[in-house]
From TrEMBL:
Assigned keywords, A-Z: Hydrogen ion transport, Ion transport, Membrane, Transmembrane, Transmembrane helix, Transport
Disordered: region residues: 20-41, 102-127
Protein family (similarity comment): Belongs to the bacterial AtpI family.
Annotated TM spans: 50-68, 74-95
One GO cellular component term: proton-transporting ATP synthase complex
InterPro entries: Atp1_alphaprobac, ATPase_put
Signal peptide location: none
Protein name: ATP synthase protein I
Length: 127
């Protein structure tokens, strides 16, 4: 009686081990699919961020150009200039957000400002 029981337990253990292995494999597939979906969502979010930054810079340039033309009376020229400036600002914002162009480090800005002040002092001393 113990031999049959031991044999039955051994078969049940093998069957359970096979089921666990199958579930682990299925879980691994599900985790891989979830990681892929997460990467896709991150890419979509990044694309929306970049496009909204670009479009908003152009719109702000156009509005400023319109207002400049309206108050100064320089018909299409203010709109053209500010629209081009908005386009350039939009491209620069997108490049910064994408990591292609980095903002200057605060220490570099401070050193540049210090050098400019020293150059200004030396020029006034020469006069």
């Amino acid at each position: 009686m113990t031999d049959n029981r031991g044999e039955g337990l051994e078969q049940r253990r093998k069957r359970l081990a096979a089921e666990l292995a199958e579930r682990k494999r299925d879980t691994g597939i599900e985790e891989a699919a979830e990681k892929s979906a997460e990467q896709s969502r991150k890419g979509y979010a990044q694309a929306m961020k970049l496009s909204s930054e670009f479009i908003s810079a152009i719109v702000v340039g156009a509005i400023l150009g319109y207002l400049f033309d309206r108050f100064v009376g320089t018909a299409p020229w203010g709109m053209i200039v500010f629209l081009l400036l908005g386009f350039c600002a939009g491209v620069l914002n997108v490049l910064r957000s994408a990591g292609m162009v980095s903002a200057p480090h605060p220490a570099d800005r401070a050193a540049r400002a210090k050098n400019e002040r020293q150059d200004g002092d030396s020029r006034s001393d020469q006069r």
